[in-house]
């Protein structure tokens, strides 16, 4: 029996707290995992123009019996499509590949110095105004740039999707996003599988009959952060979704926060002109 997934209020839309990440899933594997996820009760799918699997995600959505309006679909605009006109055309092409009239959330995949943020935000607001997406957001934006983007945007910035797992603190960004009425979505939420061998997460999991992966995902959603783990393993797909029947104590949450370390970042591709938040 699938769980009912709690939603997170993100800007003016409701976003299910857990979704399936699809980076590195392509072709039949991507389609099969998305279909299986929807069967298990997942109602949030994360893709991107850069993942080259929008057509496979679209095929899964077309094949599933789950009504389109019950699935929260996110895609991301790649950085070479940030100019006025390019962005709109790239989103129209994404929708064609996804075989849907609109997505639920459209993100700018990474910040970029040119064209100006105001130009890209105007284009993003244009596709929002035309109903091609229900909400807009960002990915990999440090907090100062996130605030600048919100100032340049008519529509609320629903989320900022950034790397977040037990080894990387995002305290500053979470607080600032919250203060702006926005949210954080965690990418590489399982630290690309590294959490599985962590003694602290294993010990906390044993106390609840849960795996380190489940403890990590629970730690994220319990903070009000959305999470989008990826797997190509059907058993783990079910495992990652089975996080709604236990709760971590304040002490357990604190023990996981204490795992953050200065060199914990896995992905480093920010333009040198921008600076990550320092916690
Ligand atoms: N916006 C961005 O710039 C950005 C960047 C990176 C990622 N993302 C998004 O975030 C999603 C997730 O991030 P990610 O794919 O980098 O990494 P992740 O979800 O942290 O980790 C995926 C890895 O962990 C393994 N795994 C999955 N479930 C597990 C579990 N319960 N226990 C132990 N290991 C487990 C998977 O292996 P198996 O397949 O063998 O299970 C896979 O190797 C992506 O798919 C993408 O949608 C966004």
TrEMBL record:
Keyword match Oxidoreductase: yes
Entry keywords, A to Z: NADP, Oxidoreductase
Residue ranges of domain NADP-dependent oxidoreductase in the record: 18-259
Entry annotated with the keyword Oxidoreductase: yes
PROSITE patterns: ALDOKETO_REDUCTASE_1, ALDOKETO_REDUCTASE_2, ALDOKETO_REDUCTASE_3
Gene3D superfamilies for this protein: NADP-dependent oxidoreductase domain (3.20.20.100)
InterPro entries: AKR (IPR020471), Aldo/ket_reductase_CS (IPR018170), NAD(P)_OxRdtase_dom_sf (IPR036812), NADP_OxRdtase_dom (IPR023210)
Coiled-coil boundaries: none
Family in the record: Belongs to the aldo/keto reductase family.
Protein name: Diketogulonate reductase-like aldo/keto reductase
């Amino acid at each position: 029996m699938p769980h009912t997934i709690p939603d997170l209020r993100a800007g003016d839309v409701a976003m299910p707290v857990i979704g399936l990440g699809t980076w590195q899933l392509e072709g039949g594997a991507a389609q099969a995992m998305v279909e299986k996820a929807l069967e298990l009760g997942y109602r949030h799918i994360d893709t991107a123009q850069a993942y080259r699997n929008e057509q496979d995600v679209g095929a899964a959505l077309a094949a599933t019996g789950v009504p389109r309006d019950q699935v929260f679909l996110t895609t991301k605009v790649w950085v070479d499509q940030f100019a006025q006109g390019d962005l709109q055309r790239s989103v129209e092409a994404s929708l064609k590949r996804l075989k849907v009239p609109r997505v639920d959330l459209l993100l700018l995949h990474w910040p970029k110095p040119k064209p100006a943020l105001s130009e890209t935000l105007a284009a993003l607001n244009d596709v929002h105004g035309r109903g091609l997406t229900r909400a807009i957001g960002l990915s990999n934006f440090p907090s100062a740039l996130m605030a600048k983007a919100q100032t340049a945007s008519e529509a609320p910035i629903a989320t900022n999707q950034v790397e977040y797992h037990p080894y990387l603190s995002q305290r500053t960004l979470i607080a600032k996003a919250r203060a702006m009425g926005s949210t954080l979505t965690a990418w590489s939420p399982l630290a690309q599988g590294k959490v599985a061998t962590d003694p602290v997460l294993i010990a906390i999991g044993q106390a609840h009959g849960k795996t380190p992966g489940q403890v990590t995902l629970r730690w994220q959603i319990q903070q009000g952060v959305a999470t989008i783990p990826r797997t190509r393993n059907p058993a783990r797909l079910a495992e990652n979704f089975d996080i709604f029947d236990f709760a971590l104590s304040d002490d357990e949450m604190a023990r996981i926060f204490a795992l953050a370390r200065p060199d914990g970042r896995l992905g480093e591709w920010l333009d040198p002109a921008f600076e990550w938040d320092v916690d």
